[in-house]
Amino acid sequence: MRITGILLLLFSFALVINGCSKEKDEAKNLEQIYAEKGIPVKVQTVQPAPFQKASYYNAILRGFRESSVFAALGDRIDKIYVKVGDYVQKDQVLLSFPTDNPAAQYYQAKVAFENARRTIERMKKLLKSGGISQQDFDNAQTQFEVARANWDAVKQAVKVKAPISGYVTKINVRETDNVDVKAELATITQTDRMKAEIWIAESEINEIHDGLPALARWNGFEIKGKVIQVNMAMDLKQRAFKAILQFDNPDNTIKSGVTAEIEIVTFDREKAIVVDQTSLLKEGGQHYVFVNNNGKAEKRPVKIGPQSGAKVLLLEGLKPGDQLIVEGQFLLKDGSKINIIG
């Protein structure tokens, strides 16, 4: 039994040795094939191509100018003169409160203004004839200015006007509604231009600057714009940098308040040398590629630029017409014989 076990062990060992010998022979044969016919590779002729890199964000679009009006007194809404979607001019009356509201003192302010206006007209004549001093006239002028300011404030409180020209994008009240002081009544928006605020990560801040082109997409619509402001200091709460973008919206296709996808083009070149990331190799911190040089692999150092997806822009190292090795490069050394199979 013991002798039989030893014989089996020796036989197994012999099989292992024989297998290793065959593997070495096969490896040697593969090396010989590579040496004789060359390492099989595929090449691609380098040609200039467009290259663009973009960053993407989500942001709320709002009218570039937007202003809300608030109740200056608490009372019932007497009349609303506009509806959502109307275009209004600056200082156009939007809605009104009753003029008999005691808190407004509408008629008192009106009478005070009329009296002050008549007084100042009389004072002008007396000053011209020498009937009063300049000091008396200046005091009357001050009283007139105060009365006029009070009257203007009361009129604005009772007859609420549009602070800017634009579209009525929101009305929060109805006629006969009772509202409190400082209640938001309506919003006017200039929608021919839109703006968006985005937050830029620290890793991307050096790529975003004023003037970069941008696109905003929402619900199948797309409008063009640009970056108009990038903060130079990080917001400590957001741990990011705030940037403001402006977009043209001439047909008012995009509504204020919607969430849109924002695309900022950070790099754009019509003719560039671009390679797939898989074609790049790296050694000791230096990127390089292999190119075909009369049937031999030439190791070519390259300088890389921006990357977009799987594409990398090369700043130096390749030129149009070079035959870049795109498959089989991991088997190569500088000067290796190659066999181009595609």
From TrEMBL:
Protein name according to UniProt: Efflux transporter, RND family, MFP subunit
Transmembrane segments: none
Ranges for domain YknX-like C-terminal permuted SH3-like: 274-339
Protein family: Belongs to the membrane fusion protein (MFP) (TC 8.A.1) family.
Record keyword Ribonucleoprotein present: no
Any single GO CC term annotated in Swiss-Prot or TrEMBL for this entry: efflux pump complex
Keywords: Transport
NCBIfam families with a match to the protein in the record: RND_mfp
One Pfam short name: YknX_C
GO MF entry, a single one: efflux transmembrane transporter activity
PANTHER family in the cross-refs: HLYD FAMILY OF SECRETION PROTEINS, MULTIDRUG RESISTANCE PROTEIN MDTA
Domain Multidrug resistance protein MdtA-like alpha-helical hairpin: 103-159
Stored InterPro entries: MdtA-like_HH (IPR058624), RND_pump_MFP (IPR006143), YknX-like_C (IPR058637)
